[in-house]
Amino acid sequence: MRNGKLLMMVAVAALFVTGVVAQSTQKMRVEKEKLYGDTFNPRQKEYANHVGFNDLHIQAIRHIMPEGDNSRLNVIVHHHCKGYDDGTFTCLMFPTGMKDQDKPHGFEYIIPTDQYNTLPAKEKRYWHYHKTEIPRAKAELPDLTDEELQALLPALNETYGKVIYTWKLGDEFPIGEPHVLIVQDLPDL
Amino acid sequence: MRSVVTALIACLLAHSVCVAEQPLGLPPLRIPEKEPLTSERVALGEMLFKDTRFSADGTIACSSCHLPGKLFSDGLPRARGIQDIEGTRNVPSLINVAFYDTFFLDGRAASLEEQVLGPLTNPIEHGLNDLKAVLTVIRKDERYPGQFQKAFGVAPAEISTDHFVRAITSFERTLVSGDSPFDRYFFGGDKTVLSESAARGLELFRMKGNCANCHEIVWKSATFTDNRFYNLGVGFERIESDLPRFVDAYWAARDAGQEFNDTIYTEAPRSELGRFNVTHTVSDIGRFKTPGLRNVALTAPYMHDGSQKTLMEVVEYYDKGGYPNPLLDAAIFPLNLAEQEKKDLVAFMEALTSPQYASAGSGTEPAKH
């Protein structure tokens, strides 16, 4: 069974066990919220079901290269991720916040351990092991209760991530060359 | 505060738009070219802010509810306006008000300027019948015409409510505070200024407590608000029994292409509809704006209805997952905080007090004429 589907099944099971699917059984008719720009998407078409990044939300520190002092290590980088059937995730990285005008500065690609093990030795240094890095990054999944998270953690721990930034935090635009952040080499806080 | 104004004025002499230096922890405050922040406008704005003559019976000034000595709030659960009439909402502090995107707790004003005039003609706030009374007071006063001339270069006959508004908002834009122990710890790198409990509380605030998802801290500043609106369930019990009938009536009118005329709720419960009163969108029922948290330890009681008296009550409320209702925000669920964790969160919020308010007293009374 693919790890991605296992992860999703564990997630659904965790939700069922805790009974937290909706806050109330009352149904209420609400308007569909206008989420997207009118000019290019006047009929509010949503492609989120197959290309969106709402499957997983992670917030983690130790995801920005320090400069001078280590204060940038303390910046929370919001990861908004989509999960795929092959067990991988692609995450947009938002280091400046989650407001309407905050922009992604890069990606984190997540692959399960068995896929990592097939990588060439030279490539492996770009990937960090989540079992060791999740606690170092004080990573949280803010949309899950503690119970829900604990149910998912074993599967999440057996994944590796590669962080690629196209935009340096603090620059007005994504100038210069993209860089891979070697997360495991960053100092601890 | 005066040093902020001086710095801003110096900047404006050199540039048309100023990104002013702010206290540690605050983002830059942009002052647009059309609204230069001059010392004359600020001083005039402060006078107007404290003047009780801009009310129906001469007893209510802006500062009657936004008391300078109470961090421009009033310490009451709900506002008390003219003839001591109690309103339905808690008075928000005006400290750092310039960093909000919308104003009033339901965000019905899109700018500081738009917000100023509303309370003057609200029958339970200042109680004026119309704004002509404002201009009458100004033109008859000994000092105001000269002050308006200095601030805006206008003759007495040219003074308008627009000038009145712009003077008051100039004053409000100087109400900034940062440089709290949290700021010195987080942005200044001084690891000695927070107690261990408050330092743990900061981590809880950003992580397990989920607080920072709405009360935002970003990498160079913290306004502690994302300027969005959320339903936490506070006050929802006042509308929930009639809500299905209300929503059905709303949709019946919408589907028939008719204007929705709400006769189900009286004034007090209607206030609990929150953002719905502005957007007329069902999903906005019960939503109120995320307030900033700077100096929060000094601005009890809390929530839009002032129903929570202490910070610990607030933490307990979030810990239990709010009040269940069909529109409760998805970000609100039980946190399972340990007792020490709750105390740590409170200690952290107490560390958001800026030095100039650390010994806040009973306040300056509004000017009486």
Tag the structure with descriptive keywords.
heterodimer; A: 6 helices; globular; B: 369 residues; mainly alpha; Cytochrome Bc1 Complex, Chain D, domain 2; two-stranded antiparallel sheet; disordered C terminus
Question: What would your notes on this structure say?
Answer:
The complex is a heterodimer of chains A (189) and B (369). With 189 residues, chain A is an alpha+beta fold. Chain A has one domain. Chain A is built from 6 helices and 7 strands; from the N terminus they run ααββββααβααββ. In chain A, strands 1, 2, 3, 4, 5, 6 and 7 form a 7-stranded antiparallel β-sheet that branches. In chain A, helix 1 (3-18) runs antiparallel to helix 6 (146-157). Chain A is globular, with a radius of gyration of 18 Å. The N and C termini of chain A lie far apart (38 Å). The model of chain A is unreliable at 1-6 and 8-25 (pLDDT under 50). By secondary structure, chain B is mostly helical. Chain B has 2 domains: 2-172, Cytochrome c-like domain (Cytochrome Bc1 Complex, Chain D, domain 2), CATH 1.10.760; 180-355, Orthogonal Bundle (Cytochrome Bc1 Complex, Chain D, domain 2), CATH 1.10.760.10. In chain B, the strands form 2 sheets. Chain B has a two-stranded antiparallel sheet with strand order 1-2. In chain B, a hairpin with an 8-residue loop joins strand 1 and strand 2 (29-31). In chain B, helix 2 packs antiparallel against helix 6, helix 4 (112-121) crosses helix 7 and helix 9 crosses helix 14 (339-350). The longest helix of chain B has 13 residues, at 2-14. The relative contact order of chain B is 0.15. Classes of the chains: A alpha+beta (189), B mainly alpha (369). At the A-B interface, loops of A face helix 10 of B.
